[in-house]
Each structure stands twice: as C-alpha cells, then as structure tokens.
Design brief:
This protein is an all-alpha fold. Among the domains are: 1-159, Serine Threonine Protein Phosphatase 5, Tetratricopeptide repeat (Alpha Horseshoe); 460-483 and 513-584, Arc Repressor Mutant, subunit A, CATH 1.10.10. It has 28 helices and no strands. The longest helix has 34 residues, at 451-484.
Length: 584
Amino acid sequence: MDLYVSSGELANLEATLDAAQGPARVETLVELAWHLRQRESGRALALVEEAEAHLPYTPLAVDTVHALQARIALTVCEISALFCRFDTAEERLADARARLSRCADPLVEGDAWLAEAVVAKARGQRDRELAAYERGVVVFRTAGDPVRLARAKAWAGYERAFTAPAAADADDGSTGMRPADTDPACDALWSAARGLMLSRREPATAADVLLHASEQAQRVGLVRHAVVCTMNAGTALQGLGDYDLAAACFDLAATVARKTGWPALIGSSQTRLGWFLKELGRLEEGRSVLVEGLASLAVTPAGINKANANSALAQTLLALGRGAESVAPMAEAIRMYREAQSTDNLALCLIGQARALAAAGQSHDALASLDEAETLIERHGFATLTVGVSEALAEIHRLHALPPPPGMTAPTATIHYAEATLRDGLLINGWRPPASLYVSLADAWAAAGELARAYDYARKALAVKEQEAALKLNHPLAVLRLRRESEPMPSGFAGLWKPSGPLELGDDESAGTSLSSKILTPKEREILQLLARNFSNKEIAATLEVSDETVKWHLKNMYNKLKAGSRKHAVTRARTLGVIDFSS
C-alpha cells in the first residue's frame, strides 16, 4: 500500500471497490480510506467504519487482519490529528504500533513514524516531529523502499526549512529532496522548501515555485500541503504589491480550507485573509476576520498558526491607531515564534513589535526589537525584510526625537529612512511601492519645506491609491462572499485547482466605482491631495503654478461634487468615498 497515489490510481481503486466482494472488498475499503485521509477525510472515516464492521466476519489470515487493523488505526490517527482530536490520534497511533509484531506489512512501522510526525506537527511538538521523520528514514532504508525513503527525507527537509530556509537549497544530495525521479510528492516538498528559502530573497520567483508545489501536492492528495503552499504564494505576491493574484490565492485557499473542516487550516486561511484586508486598508473588516481566525484556532496548540494570527491582529490594531492594544498579541506571537524556531517570521514580527512599541511611546525598546530583527536578517539572508526595518525606523524617528543616523544627508531622519525603504524595495524584483510609503515621503518632505518633492510623491501616492481602490471594490468583497456563503461545498476536488486571477462581481457590488475617476477632474484630484496635506490656497497655487483664483474655482467645484461645506469636510468626504485614503 503506497503512501500517496495519483487521482488516476484513486479512480481505479474506486472502480475496484464497486466490483469487490468478501475479503477483497474489505481490503479495498481500507486501502481507499488510507488514500483519502488527506483528500476527503470525512469519507475516509465512513469507509473505515464500514471496514471495521465487516473485518471480524471476513475470512483473512491473522497477519493480514493485523496489517489492515494497523492501517485503519494510522488512517484514523492522521485524520484525528487534522481535526485536532489529539487523544484519539495518540490512541490510534499506539494501537497501530501494538500490532507491528504480528503485521504482514513490513512498511507499516515506517508509515507509523510518518503518522506520528503528522500528530506532532498538529500538536506543535517540533522536536518530536523531526525525530519521527528521522526514524521513518531509518526504517525505509532498512526495508529497501527507495520511494518511501525519498519522501520521508523530503518531509524532514521541508520541515527543517522553516527554521533554516537556506538549507532548503542545498544540492549535496543529503536531504533527499531533489525530485530526480520526478515523483510529484518529493517535488511538492522540495519546491515548497525552496519557495520558503526564496520568499525573503526573491518573492516573485518564490510565488511561482510555491504554486508549482501546490499543483504537485494535489496530484498525490496532499491537500493540506497544497493549501499551505497556495497561501504562502499569496503572501509572497502580497508583499510585492500584486494584490490581484494574491487575492485569487487567498480566495482559493479559504474555499478549500473551509471544505476540509480542519480547524488549523481554516484558521490559517482566515489569518491570511484578515491580513490581506488590512493591507487593503479595510482595517475593521480585517480585524473581525482575524478574531474569527483566532476562534477557529482555539482548539489548536500554541505554534506558528496562532503566532501568525496574533501577529496579524497586532499589526491591524496598530494600523487602527490602537498601539497599546497591539503590544500584548505581538508579544504572544513573538513568544510562539521563538518556541517554534521560525526565524523569518520572528524577524518580521520583531519589526512589527518595534512599530507597536514606538506607538506606545517606548522608543528604546522599539530600537532593541529592530536590532534583534536586523541580526536575524543578516544571519539568515532575509534580504527583503530590510525594507521593513527601514520603514519602521522612519516611523520611530517620526514619532520620537532621537539622534540622527551617522552620515545622514537628508533633512530629517524620517526622510533618510523612508528614502532608504524606497531604494531598497526597488532592488527587489517585482516589488511595488505602496501608497502609504509615498504618503509618508510626501508628508516628510512637506514638513521639511520641500513642496516640489512633496507634490511629486503625493501624485505617485494618488496613482497607487486609485489602483488599490479598484482592488478594494473587486477582490476583497468576493473573498468575503465565499467566507460567508452557507451552501454546502461539492464533494471531492475535480482535477487540479489553482488561482484563476481577478474575480468578477455583480453590478450591485461594483456600483461604487471610484469617484475620483468618475466626477473629479485630474486637477481637482491634485488639489485634493494637497488639501489633505494642509496646504494653504497660496501653497497649492505655487505648487501647481496656477493663480489663487483658479484654486478657489476648483475648490468650489470640488465642494459641490463632494457635497462638502468646508476644506476639512471635503477631505473627510473624499476619504469616506474612497477618493483618497491615507489612513493605512
């Protein structure tokens, strides 16, 4: 009985079951349940129930009976772990091991070690998980099964990549992860490990590699792994500012996760969705989804999933201006990242903690968090995270009067670090500057009296904001609609699933087309941007090289269109209607 099979092999097994009777039917029931354990776990349990009901009355050799009972136990063990039913998972694992000495299948012992790794991962027991993979490697090497041996090594290498991503790209043959035999399972695991390595260095390439890993995982029924790879690809794309495809990734992951019913996978997909909404400026919706995600994860132990959810919630609270509230969940996330030895997530979270501490008035502690983050970034080569460090330093210096950095030539430390953020980001292939960065630069240069530079960055911010506004209208609403729909999902997965790009909405949802592109002229939008920065009429006129009367004329027209009675009211209305939004 293989570890994983293709969809074609599964279809043949289904056909065999339809025609099978007596002992052959019981054996096929057990084999089919085993191969459905991560495809359709609910149906797998139903098949197990039928097999267990008939097994005592089926004429089979004693060692064959023990082999089937051990396989049933391992099937239920893995499924129970995915549903976070840990007592049942441990009991079934012990049951399988108790039958090893009388079992006709010599590979059950190695499979039991791989099942234990699944349980350990679900329980957040990392040392136990890696040790189980190593024991499986020994058993399969002794048994002379090269396919299982390669897959066990691949699993071990993939899990190690979470704490030492650079090791995933080793090509010395020691990891057993190179898919030389074109085995989809090994390819899925090796590609996922390589994607983790690339995600902090070359995120555009990482996204492609991770989506490939997802497809390969689907070919052999590794649904959980496929969903995780799809979410990780979406995160890499989101970091690049490619919200279009990122939305499709999160949409797909949420749909499949919800169908599985596995709490950890559902909570993880909600975490990614909530963070995505936060990045689009939909802060309250993002916070609500993240709270739901933490509720889904309530039955799971402390670990990376809960750490991710706490980190995302803390960052969202910070963006909402609730910095004091963000400190506790951020500290909890960092604690769990340390325990899980998740170095890249720890570095990213330390950057977030620095921002939260700065907002809470603790500049010294904020800088200490950034120092630790920078040490991790340098040690592990997380090049893309240097952008976050510079961005956090710009914010800390904006909020606190601190000594300037050595060799600074910019007017202020805030400008120095904000320009460094832009410069370092543009060195990353596929990176797109967010509107919030342009806004920060516009504000900083305006405060320094450089109105021409401030205006240039304000125009760039407006262009990016209009693109982001279109995405707010399209993708997040569609994703949330999937999250809220109550109709049952169809059974099974038909073929390979992958992100399909932009999601279309009905007229009722897209009716709020960007006001700035419909009723405000380009000149009015430019004036509105400057108005939001508290420019006086004379400063606006000087910046745009027009007369004061022209500015007044545009303001009057803009007030009418926005139904506003004052300068402040016009800016507030514009933000509410999505014409401008500098809150994120």
